[in-house]
Amino acid sequence: MTRVYVSAVMPISLEQAWRVLRDFNGLPDYHPFFAKSYIEDGKPADQVGCVRHFHDHDGNAIREELLSLSDREHLCCYRILDAPALPVRGYVSEMRLKPITTSGHCFGEWWAEFEVDDADHDDVVQRVGDTFRLAFEGAAERAS
Fold this sequence. Notes:
This is Polyketide cyclase / dehydrase and lipid transport. Helices cover 24% and strands 43% of the residues. The chain has three helices and seven strands, in the order βααββββββα. A seven-stranded antiparallel beta sheet has the order 1-7-6-5-4-3-2. It starts with a strand and ends with a helix. It has helices at 14-21, 27-30, 121-143, and strands at residues 2-10, 34-39, 51-56, 61-70, 75-82, 89-100, 105-115. By secondary structure, it is an alpha+beta fold. The model has no long low-confidence stretch (mean pLDDT 97).
């Protein structure tokens, strides 16, 4: 099992960060990798079990299912259902935010666990890590 973990301090409040990152359908609004997204079957983007279907700028599609979303704990957990351009199996990811009380900023952590073939390991780990890092950067920019 491979685990990718990224953390960041964002120069925005927890509330500001959560407003951006809790939107399961909002990736194209703040992430440079993604071009468009929709929630299948017209379900709300915060309904556990909803499936987001999004595309990167090269046209590659990814489908992910929302497993949990907690406004109390400021966390989101999801799994990949289908990602032909990302050779992973059993991919589950979680993002969590916490306040930094001394500065008023927000600490974010995002991780994923998955199986990947050895030949693809380094490339996939880099891509997943970059995805998480850029999400935090984009959320901070969008919220400020």
